[in-house]
Amino acid sequence: MDLADKSVTGRIRHAPVPTVYEPTTLASMTPPHPHHPQASAGTTGKGRPRTGGRSHGAAARSIEDHAGAVADLLRRGPWPEREAQWIPLERATGRVLARQVVAEVDLPPFTNSQMDGYAVSAAATAADAGATVVLRAGAPAPAGHVPAQLEPGQAVPVMTGAPMPPGADAVVPVEECEPGGFQPAGRPVRIPAGQSAGRFVRPAGEDVRAGASVLAEGTELTAQAVGVCASLGLREVLVRPALRVGILTTGDEVVPPGAARGPAQIFDANAAILRAALACAPVEVVGSFHVPDDDAALRSLLRERVRAGERAADLWVTSGGISEGAFEVVRKVLSDPGAAEFSEFLHVAMQPGGPQGLAMVEGIPFVCLPGNPVSTWVSAEMFLHPALNTVLGGPPPRVVIRVPSADDLHPLPGRTRVVRAHWDGSAVRRVGGYGSHLLAAAARANALIILPPGADPVPAGSEVAVRLLP
Q: In terms of CATH architecture, what is 400-468?
């Protein structure tokens, strides 16, 4: 396909909302200063993590710094080297344009009626204020058909979206005319006098002029953007390569939903959480895998799957196996210099979701999240989501607002507490307990309260930062 004769691609910029901020988008992050806590938590002098496990005794990393570290890791992955691709419009939602979209037609393409009513010449309705004029009904002008010329003294029944009859420059809603309803052709119709030219008329090109740039390069293709492309007659668009993601869950105690579950086992929620969290981003999940708490099993999967030809993942997201337990398979394997070019496993000053990890295996980034389901979900929200926005241009950043809390809240010394909550438009209320295993409560949440570190309770009525969820 000749790309030269295609004009398509960009990122929709929204006006800022008062009192709203986005602390975890981190659109511009730089490598840490050598004396910054991020650099001390297992990094080289170049700001890259060095191979090894947790840096014992190091200060916990801030949420902002870790989100930046995740974004930096993604930037170094292989995906930007692939070429842009043309895809059908029906599969383009969530993808990012690789080229601007230029209109080849006006929108609307012809002048049309905004209302069901009578198309008239405004000059034919000139009379004293409050008076009416009598015109003859013409043949109806339905949508999808070319209307006849408006004759002198005529009022043409016109439907919403139908082309305006030549000679007509105003539409009078049918409910303003007498008798009520559309009249047969030739019958008299009483029209309120003094109609203005342009009333209830949509001019051709009012929305977009042919030749204008409609969507800029880097635009995430939302439902609205896809609709604009379709209205311009496009069947396909040129998009940036999708980031191919592999999902890996771990643990002897985890079995797939629907499988036989032993008395000490649980169903795997994390793979579903991660797949859903990635669904709104310009990514393609190329596989979801599970390994038990077995070093050899993980090493085997890395050998087989890290390089899998056309279906190789550009990024792996893992859950579980990264903390201080005796069977932390991800931390143990990826801390081995023979398995990863570099790795770091550390604590972020956040609850839930304190344990975190990053690694690079054969040039492929690994973002390693904790295994409790709520911790996995919160970590994806706080780190993976903003990093994908920073690096790929989508999904859109979450909006954060300051609103009163309906409940007393209990912060943690030295750690930001991320609290599942429900925002009702006037106040935000905590949902469920604070535990990282309480997933059912998270399902009722439409927001996260971001509670800064502290020792004293935050009384009800206090303003708190709230991250709104879709």
A: Beta Barrel (2.40)
Low-confidence ranges of the chain (pLDDT < 70): 1-58, 80, 129, 310
Q: Which is it for strands 20-21 and 154-158: parallel, antiparallel or unpaired?
A: unpaired
Class at the top of the CATH hierarchy for domain 31-82+241-392: alpha beta
* pTM, to two decimals: 0.77
Fold of 112-202: Molybdopterin biosynthesis moeA protein; domain 3 (2.170.190)
Give per-residue pLDDT as tens, 240-277. Answer: 988 999 999 999 999 999 999 999 999 999 999 999 99
